[in-house]
Specification:
Elements: H1 21-39, H2 45-56, E1 62-64, H3 70-76, E2 85-87, H4 89-94, H5 104-113, E3 121-124, H6 128-136, E4 140-145, E5 150-155
Parallel strand pairs: 1-2, 3-4
Antiparallel strand pairs: 4-5
Length: 164
C-alpha cells in the first residue's frame, strides 16, 4: 500500500512511529485499541440473533480470524462468552500456525471444540474461503450477509468449492 503511493520505508527501526512500516502498524493498532475502548462496538443485529439461535441449540462455536484484535473486539461487543474458542492472529503466532488460506487455524478451532472437521459449519466472508473450506474437508459452508444477518447455506461439492 505504501509503495503504491511512492512511499518507501524500512520494515522496522527508527525512533518515531512514522519512520517504519512496523511503526505505522503499531500506531494504527494503538489508535484502534483506544477507539475500541472508548467507543465500543455493536454486533450486527442479525448476526447476534443467529448466535443466539445457535447458542440455544447448544452448538459449540469458535471464531477463526487473522486479526490480532479478535479477542478485544469480541469482548467490546459483549460476544466473547458465546465462543468456546478464539483462534486469531495472536494464537496463530503463538502456536506457529500458518494463516489463511492454509486450513491450520480452522483445524485448531475444530480441535479446541472437540469437533471432527467434517462436522464443522464454517462462515464464509471471502471468496477464497470456498477453497479453504474444501481444503479443511468441510461438508458445508454458510455465507452470512452481516448487514442483514441472513445466512445462505451451500453444500461443498468438488465442482462448486472454487467459485468466486
Amino acid at each position: 500500500m505504501l509503495a503504491e503511493r511512492g512511499i518507501t520505508l524500512p520494515e522496522s527501526g527508527g525512533t518515531e512511529w512514522q519512520e517504519s512500516v512496523q511503526g505505522i502498524g503499531n500506531r494504527k493498532n494503538q489508535v484502534f485499541t483506544e477507539v475500541l475502548a472508548r467507543d465500543g462496538i455493536t454486533g450486527y443485529p442479525g448476526s447476534v440473533r443467529l448466535l443466539d439461535q445457535l447458542g440455544e441449540q447448544g452448538k459449540p462455536l469458535a471464531i477463526v480470524s487473522s486479526s490480532r484484535n479478535a479477542e478485544p473486539v469480541l469482548r467490546a461487543a459483549g460476544l466473547r462468552e458465546r465462543f468456546l474458542a478464539v483462534v486469531d492472529g495472536v494464537v496463530a503466532a503463538q502456536d506457529r500456525l500458518p494463516g489463511k488460506p492454509a486450513p491450520d487455524t480452522f483445524l485448531r478451532a475444530a480441535e479446541l471444540l472437540g469437533v471432527a472437521r467434517r462436522r464443522l459449519l464454517c462462515s464464509k466472508t471471502r471468496s477464497r474461503e470456498w477453497r479453504l473450506g474444501a481444503r479443511v474437508g468441510l461438508d458445508s459452508l454458510w455465507e452470512l450477509n452481516v448487514a442483514q444477518g441472513k445466512p445462505r447455506f451451500f453444500k461443498l461439492e468438488r465442482t462448486s468449492w472454487c467459485r468466486t
